[in-house]
Amino acid sequence: MLAVHQLYGRQSHAIDSGRAADWAATFTSDGEFRSPSYPEPSTGTAELTAFAERFHAACVESGEALHHVISTVDVAATGPDALTSTAYLQIVGTPRGESSRLLRITTIVDELVRTPGGWRIRRRVVLRDG
Amino acid sequence: MLAVHQLYGRQSHAIDSGRAADWAATFTSDGEFRSPSYPEPSTGTAELTAFAERFHAACVESGEALHHVISTVDVAATGPDALTSTAYLQIVGTPRGESSRLLRITTIVDELVRTPGGWRIRRRVVLRDG
Amino acid sequence: MLAVHQLYGRQSHAIDSGRAADWAATFTSDGEFRSPSYPEPSTGTAELTAFAERFHAACVESGEALHHVISTVDVAATGPDALTSTAYLQIVGTPRGESSRLLRITTIVDELVRTPGGWRIRRRVVLRDG
Predict the structure, then answer these.
(1) Residue B27 in contact with residue B7, Cβ under 8 Å?
(2) How many structural domains is chain C composed of?
(3) pLDDT at residue B60 in the model
(4) The complex's ipTM?
(5) % of chain A residues with pLDDT over 90
(6) Cβ-based contacts of A3 with chain B (< 8 Å)
(7) Which member of B64, B69, B96 has the closest CB to residue A71?
(8) CA nearest B3 in C: which residue?
(9) Which of A18, A96, B38, B74 gets the highest tally of CB atoms within 10 A of its CB?
(10) C107 to chain A: which residues are within 8 Å by CB?
C-alpha cells in the first residue's frame, strides 16, 4: 500500500513540473480521469497527456505555480490485483512574487490495478464538497 | 507503521463523510479523545460515536464541509503491541459555494495498541499552538 | 521507503518543538541544508543545530508558532545505500490567539544515505516557485 503513496508523490511532482507524459503514465493505457473542475473526462494515454500539457501551459501563462498536495490516503484491497484508494488533494497556488494560498480541497477516489510496471490508476473520480 | 498512516486515512474520511461508527471504531472500545476545541473528553465507543455524529451534524447545519487533513506522521514503538504517534492535523473548511480555507492546525498525540482487529487508538490528545 | 516518511515526520516535529539537536541529527554529520529563505547554507551538525535554534528562537520572539507540514513524498533509489526524495513542505503559521495561515509552499529535494543509525539526509535543497 506504500506503493500507492509513492505513486501519488510521483504523479503530483510530474504534473506540477510539466512532465505530462510521466503524469499520464501513472494511469493505465485506458485510464480515465473525471473531475468537476473540467467539462469532459480524459480517457487513455493520449488524452491524459494532453490534459496534463494544457494544465501546465495554463499555469505558465497565468504566472501562478500550482502544487498538488496529497494527504490522508486510505487504501483497501478489492482483489488480488486491485485496490481502491481515497485521498485528499489540495491545490495550492503561488502567483509569481506573491504568497501561497489554498485554492481548493478535493477528494480523489481511485481504482488501481497491478500491472507489470507496478500499480496504475484505472479510474480517478475527483469529488468536491462545499 | 504504515498501518498507522492507513488508520489515519480511514479515520479522517469516516468523520468527514458522517460515518460516525466507523470513526469511533478507530479507537479501542475504552478509547479516549481529548481536544481543547471541545469542553469535555469523549471516552468509550458510545461517546466517541456521539461526538462524531455531533461533529458532522454541525457541518451539515452550517453548510461548511470540513476535511481532516493528516500529515507529517512520526511513529515510535513503546512496546511489542504499543505505539505512540504524533502527526499534524489541519482542519480545512469549504463553505458551500465558497473557497476552501485553513481553519486551524493542531498536533495529535496518540497512544495506539495492537488489537485482533489491527492497531487502534487508546488515547488521543489534541494540542493547539498559537 | 517508509523510513523516509518516518524521518520527515520526526524531523518536522523536532524543529517545530525547538529540539534543535534532534533536527540536526536527521542529517549526516557533514549534511548540508540550502534554502532560498536563508542567505547561507548550513553544513555539518554544529551549523545545522545552530540553524534550528535560531529558527525556533525567532518563532518564540515573534509569538507565531510554525509547523513544517510534509506531504506528497516521492522516493527513488539511486544505489544500494542511497535515495533521492522529493516532497512538498508547507510552512503554516499560527500567531498567538489568531487563525492559522499558510505562509509558503516549497519543494524539498533530498539526497539520503543509509547509515548505521538509519537513513540520513546528506544534502537538502529547498526550491520555491512563484
Answers:
(1) no
(2) 1
(3) 94
(4) 0.95
(5) 92
(6) none
(7) B69
(8) C2
(9) B74
(10) 13, 67
